[in-house]
Amino acid sequence: MEMPVNFDHPYDVLVVGGGNAALCAAIAARRAGARVAILEKAPRFYRGGNTRHTRNMRCAHDTATETLSGPYTEEEFFDDLMRVTQGQTNQPLARMMIRKSKDMLNWITEQGVRFQPSLGGTLSLGRTNSFFLGGGRSMLNALYRTAEKLGVHITYEAEVTDIEMDGSRFVAAQVKTPDVTRRLAARSLVAAAGGFEANIEWLKEGWGDIADNFLIRGTPYNRGTLLRTLIAKGMKQIGDPTQCHAVAIDARAPKFDGGIITRLDCVVFGIVVNNRCERFYDEGEDIWPKRYAIWGRLVASQPDQIAYIIFDAPSLELFMPSLFPPVTGGTIEELAAKLQLDPAALRTTVETFNAAVQPGEFNDKILDGCHTEGLTPPKTNWARQIRTGPFYAYPVRPGITFTYLGVEVDEEARVQLATGGAAENIWAAGEIMAGNVLGRGYAAGIGMTIGSVFGRLAGEGASHYANR
């Protein structure tokens, strides 16, 4: 049974946010004996931030399981993280997270979340990532049911606009609801309110006016209000305001909340050109789950922040389709005209690419070595000539999932002060502190790992502090 927050009595643990990290923190704190409140800025229907749109999480494990096709060691996970971040990670913190992720699949299952059998196909994640049965919303609903059964109090449309501090100690939150602004006291605070990706003006502080052309894959409610407040109250900032999880999504997607169904997984099967019909990056650099999150940033650097994935008939059914159908043309010139591109320029780019493709045995399940020669930029894997009509294209823009600028934490998920040391009773989990692990880059499912591992740590730490 859902119970609203009682503003007239202090709580042991106040959790701000409503996604995976917040729920893991609230459940862990409640199971440790704390009286817990959750304040979620979004309406109930839109609760959960980006968790609503996720599909899977990445955890280390030593053997195959009912839902995973093989082992994924701590060292392999760490190597993957180092590769995608190019070393820009807090290594001790990352190793701790990976080590604790080994128990997370069991713990999450104990909270009511169910997983489906491992997936095959082009995502290549059957061994490394566990997929939620029913997707992110089903996972989220399971966590909410558990929190409610445990007696966690939850109020929606409740935005924390300020916090009271006594030195380094959190005292109370100022909470804006549709009807009134109220004060809520608590013995400890867990900040799990996400990033600021929906705050276009804040994005423009780092990116400039090109941020106007960004699409926001998730909730319009993640505006970074709590993050701004924490930094203003003396918490230590970490990360670059221009670093984020940014993928190439269908340019026809809505400005906000298009979710995962607008993502395109076909880059590796064709070429990507800008609106001048120029290729600008190696489409076959690595297995897609380790490289898909670089493409938002790549498209952001192109004229007008727009690009086009071009491929032909043999590739049409090699990837999961997007919400929108591809643009189709019987010839390259017809396709170009529909995209409002220069037909002669696109024909030249395709013919130049085709001439550079070397013989090889195409295999979309591995790094197949099918490559180009004498072409800049090269295509180092999955290079096949684009010559069999009909021809297809998807227009893409940068799709921002979440931002990496956040607050610094230690291995207990305690928020650090700008002046040194830790805040007495403030913890953080999820996207609001993801920059500790993700200095740049992304690999599929790591956001959920960060949220669940640090959420559980934060909830346990905040509860122990409150009940000491």
From TrEMBL:
GO molecular function: oxidoreductase activity
Domain FAD-dependent oxidoreductase 2 FAD-binding: start-end pairs: 12-439
InterPro entries the record matches: CobZ (IPR012831), FAD-dep_OxRdtase_2_FAD-bd (IPR003953), FAD-oxidoreductase_2 (IPR050315), FAD/NAD-bd_sf (IPR036188), Succ_DH/fumarate_Rdtase_cat_sf (IPR027477)
Keywords, ordered alphabetically: FAD, Flavoprotein, Oxidoreductase
Cofactor(s) this protein requires: FAD
KW RNA-binding (keyword) present: no
PANTHER family recorded: FAD-DEPENDENT OXIDOREDUCTASE 2 FAD BINDING DOMAIN-CONTAINING PROTEIN (PTHR43400:SF7), FUMARATE REDUCTASE (PTHR43400)
Record-linked NCBIfam families: CobZ_N-term, PRK08274.1
Name of the protein described by the UniProt record: Tricarballylate dehydrogenase
